[in-house]
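Field reference: sequence -> structure
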Amino acid sequence: MAASAEIWLEASIATLSDCASMFEADNLEVLGISLQLPSYTGGAYISVVGTEQSVELGVVCTPESQQALAQRFLGAEAALEPDEVADAMREIANIVAGGLKTVMIQHDPSLLLGLPLFIDGVHLGANTRTHVAKVNLIGQELCLVVIVRG
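Structure field:
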């Protein structure tokens, strides 16, 4: 049986919270939950695909927050080049998706991860549901986006 989008989102929040130490942070603060995409949808997205259900996980934030998160993640003091920021954001999404897969495999043992993509924004098609958690990590707002298709 397919898991609800709420369960996917809760598992995504828990996974990112477990990874907070990657950013030298003690914890993650959830600022809100929404069914609407944030106004800015640029970031890293990765597919989590199974026979029961497939979702897209997005780690989305403004370019300024992407820079700050990437610098902290990589331990860089100086500003990073755009391709370095994109690489770091893809790796963050990949790590969160890996933890998400570990949690969600109980709902669908066939889950596989796609390759993370860094894009400027996403456009949703018909029959698409989104669940978004706005969180604060190291003083930066970001959104975990779960997109369920079908």
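Note: The longest strand covers residues 128-137.
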